Amino acid sequence: MAGKVKSLLSVATFNVNSLRARLPLVLAWLAANEPAVLCLQETKVCDEDFPLSEFTDSGWNVAFHGQKSYNGVAIISKLPIDEVSKGLGQAELDEQARVIRAKVAGISVVNAYVPQGSSRASQKFQYKLKWLKGLQRVLERDYEVDEPLVLCGDLNIAPSDNDVYDPQRLWGDPCFCREVQDIYHELLDWGLVDVFRKHQKSGGHFTYFDYRLRGALANGLGWRIDHILATKCLSRRSKGISIDLELRRAERPSDHTVLLAKFAQ
Known about the structure:
Elements: E1 8-15, H1 19-33, E2 37-41, H2 52-56, E3 61-65, E4 73-77, E5 81-86, E6 99-104, E7 107-113, H3 123-142, E8 149-154, H4 167-170, H5 178-190, E9 192-194, H6 195-199, E10 226-231, H7 232-235, E11 238-244, H8 246-249, E12 258-264
Parallel strand pairs: 1-2, 7-8
Antiparallel strand pairs: 1-12, 2-4, 3-4, 5-6, 6-7, 8-10, 9-10, 11-12
Helix pairs in contact: 3-5
């Protein structure tokens, strides 16, 4: 039938907040959903201790970039993972394991864990802004806007009032302020599309629920700071995107949950 979608390519992102603590959850989710690509952030495991065989024994390919106790990113796929690179290519910004890049099924995958920023008066916030600008330079230098690319990850940016549960009270947070929103929109202006907002215009859809806030999940007190951004040629192929809250409801969950997008091949 003309125009019929024959198959879908699914891409997911998940800040796991310690891979070893959440390994059974990740493996069970992979078995149930079998995405083409799963991007993990905050794996908190150095490369020599990465639980590689837990994935490869089930047929998954993995590329990872980690450090002990903090940060860490990984790309998981049953498809070949090619052209793997780590970091932004700037020594000051690459002291922490926060980005890994690769190609899967002809799609460039950039998996990023953007610094949180502590407070806007801190040096950590200035580092966050520098890091985001470094990421922007990598996109401009190494990629073309007309190639299929996804930028996935915990970007630690809530782009608009619709992306936090209380915009008036939370405004000025290092993840919800003009400085980071401006950079986010510069990424979109370069040629990326917020795939979630392509399909869902309304607020109240969140990927992060703070552990410290009692009843956050039950009461919808969340943030949308995990994103899947795609170049326009790939975004046009997107068929849907969803937030899987079941992982946040699980025993010993991460404070984030999975965002899953599907694209026509």
